[in-house]
Amino acid sequence: MPEPVLTRRAAMLGAFAMVPILRPLPAFGVAGPDRLAFEVVREGSVIGSHELVFERSGTMLRAHIDCRMRIGFGPITLFRYRHQGVELWQDGVFQSLETSTDHNGRALAVTARRTPRGIDIRTADGARLLAPAGALPLTHWNMACMHADLFNPQDGTLIAETATCAGADRVTLADGRDIAATRYDLKGAAPISDWYDAGGVWTGLRAKVKDGSVLHYRRV
User: Fold this and answer.
1) In the chain, where the domains are located
2) Beta bridge partners of 85
3) Is pLDDT of 56 > 80?
4) What's the pTM value of the predicted model, to 2 decimals?
5) Which of 1, 76, 148, 185 counts the most CB atoms within 10 A of its CB?
6) 39, 46 contact by CB (below 8 A)
7) Model pLDDT for residues 127-179, shown as the tens digit of each residue
């Protein structure tokens, strides 16, 4: 996910309350699709793709994430972005995340792992953060992240904003079809909206980026 989509104000650790008893969070989990793919559109032009491949074994779910973007004129590249990650869930509970990002030549890496005390995060700048046990990475594919404390999978920082359900809506797919979906909005410096279809599967995204333009994810 590109920086304009994921960058948020970091929350102070003290702002989190005592960790509640951990319960499995809603997700499409082991019954979902094997692959999700989106084209990334900016100002009417396709600039990249975002793909997720899901590996399942019993109640284990591993999500492989690959996002690529490029803005340029012919062979001249003005901006490039590559974000890759592996996210692990067990019995409906988030376990770990590892990501690597090339943000226009800047290399970033993040790890996050469940521990008895909470989610231990190694941020891209080498800091260690402890997030609540119920915290999730804002990787969007799992609707559970719309109901949880969040951290940024690109740089590892904690996210102050929470998502609000905007209710029933419509979203356009890559083939031009318009389908019913539920929309969630995250307010902040770079507003984001995510859409999920009737089965709870991630179906679209809209994000305003720093230069004022808008990115749209259209599911293939």
Assistant:
1) 3-219
2) 65, 99
3) yes
4) 0.85
5) 1
6) yes
7) 999 999 999 999 999 999 999 999 999 999 999 888 999 999 999 999 999 99
